[in-house]
Amino acid sequence: MDEDLAIINNNTRNEKIKNFFIKYKNVLVSIITLIVITIMIFFGYGEYTKSKKESISNLYNSTIIDYSESTKKDTTDTLIEIINKRDTTYSPLSLYFILDNNLISEKTKVNELFNIIIKKTKLENEIKNLVIYKKALYNADLSNENELISILKPILNSESIWKSHALYLIAEYFFSIGEKNKSKEFFSQILLLENSNKDITREAQKRLNRDLSE
Questions:
Q1: How many domains does the chain have?
Q2: Which pTM does this prediction carry?
């Protein structure tokens, strides 16, 4: 008797499962199809991103290898093209190459390229802060107090590893224009930072002892 009941229950359960699949066949097919498409898109996008990165890498490397005075314009145009691709690795490197080799003389154009890297490229925070610091360095000679601090504001308002560098740049700026009290204020802030660069801290202490002691 018990064996007969078990067979009946098993048949009933199988029938319910069968009916469930028949009733929801279209829904199940749609779900499975969606899962397969999602997996394909995920891996396809990964391959596309990898291929795009490799293409930009090859373009960058071939461009700087071929660089010479005779290819200066072509090199500059290609590096600007790479910057506009907003690649997290090769866009900043392209800008650094332009700066190191003085490929563009117009400061307005260079600052536009800086802004593409800083505002439109998805960089890690500390990489972005480094680019911001480099922008401040680039503009330091011709900027006034407000402009320089405005550029460096994102770093000054953070706990970035580049904060001591930013403070040192501002302190030296004020020292160069004879604003010794302001200079001393920023040098002193460097000494209070927990993550201050050791070389920067040492130079700040030297400046305070040698030139700004009362």
A1: 1
A2: 0.76
